[in-house]
Design a protein that fits this description.
The chain is an alpha/beta fold. The protein has one domain: Rossmann fold. The chain contains twelve helices and eleven strands. Strand 4, helix 6 and strand 5 form a beta-alpha-beta unit. The structure holds zinc ion (ZN).
């Protein structure tokens, strides 16, 4: 059966090699093709299978109508969780001496940009409940607590064991380890930063996001902006599963009971960002500073590498 878009249902789909949009032949690609052949011949070990979870021997199904892309592969039970645990050392946490370092919170460029983007939409009076999904240090919870004091109740979803004491120290409640999970309540503000592109199945996650957001409540989503430039250059995809444009993210949220408050492309234009990502080891301090200033800005930049979006749950 010919594939169709998971969001707009269009059948106008192209296959783009994962991590190799420009279809180049290099050592990395050859290694992956050989590995895929070995695994296909039944010669693969568990180690090899983990290495091949995200691989240019598979494709992204890229919708040419709305721009949404999805990595074309299925995962076995527990495979992804095992990969993320290894890759992100989720048990790590933050050294205790840094727990109260507020510069760690306010000095973080993306957090500055996200706070500037959402804070004016948060309730001006009364108490409200906030949930940060895939929270790690949950800089947003700490900013919200600093700004709103006792008015805000902060909860997080976080799989990493290393953060539990840190949350207790900051009065942040651990609501669950994974999402979707039964949270037994609704939140007035749900925050997700560079998380949605990693989930395995979009449909149940968006359904659960709506269920977890109170009617009239807000949901913030920040993901990479995977526009036409993104797919025409060999951006590193790994380990993303979903690839959004402002149109496809907005459409997906609408289908699940949200309306857009503001969807902004921002930071560094993708054509420049590609060069920046390719030279991460060689960047000058000034180049890094410029990138941080752009990430911290709420200025709209057409073709910017970040999608910063706020949605309201419709009653
Ligand atoms: Zn589509």
């Amino acid at each position: 059966m010919e594939p169709s878009c998971g969001i707009c249902k269009s059948g106008n789909i192209e296959r783009v090699p994962y991590d190799n949009h420009e279809r180049k032949l290099n050592l990395y690609v050859v290694k992956h093709h050989v590995g895929a052949w070995l695994a296909g011949a039944g010669l693969g070990t568990g180690w090899l299978k983990q290495r091949l979870l995200f691989t240019p021997s598979k494709n992204i199904l890229h919708c040419l109508a709305c721009g949404y892309g999805r990595y074309e592969r299925t995962f076995e039970e527990g495979e992804l969780e095992c990969y993320y645990r290894r890759r992100y050392s989720l048990a790590g946490g933050l050294p205790k001496e840094a727990w109260d370092d507020f510069d760690y919170v306010v000095g973080h460029a993306k957090t500055q940009g996200q706070w500037a983007f959402v804070s004016r939409h948060l309730p001006v009076s009364g108490g409200f409940k906030m949930l940060d999904i895939g929270a790690a240090a949950s800089r947003m919870s700490r900013l919200a607590k600093d700004h709103f004091g006792g008015r805000v109740e902060c909860s997080v979803i976080e799989p990493g064991d290393g953060w539990l004491e840190y949350y207790r120290h900051h009065g942040i409640e651990l609501a669950g380890r994974f999402f979707p999970s039964d949270l037994g309540g609704e939140y007035d503000y749900v925050h997700t930063s560079h998380w949605l592109e990693h989930v395995e199945h979009l449909e149940p996650v968006l359904h659960a996001l709506r269920k977890s957001t109170a009617a009239g409540g807000l949901c913030f989503i920040e993901v990479p902006n995977c526009d036409a430039t993104y797919f025409s250059r060999s951006f590193p995809d790994s380990p993303h599963i979903h690839f959004f444009t402002s149109a496809s993210l907005t459409a997906a949220m609408r289908q699940h009971g949200f309306e857009a408050v503001q969807v902004t492309e921002c930071a560094m234009v993708n054509s420049e960002y590609h060069g920046y990502r390719c030279r991460t080891a060689l960047l000058t301090a000034e180049e890094q500073r410029t990138a941080e200033i752009l990430e911290a800005s709420v200025e709209q930049v057409r073709g910017g590498n970040l999608l910063r979006a706020l949605f309201r749950a419709i009653a």
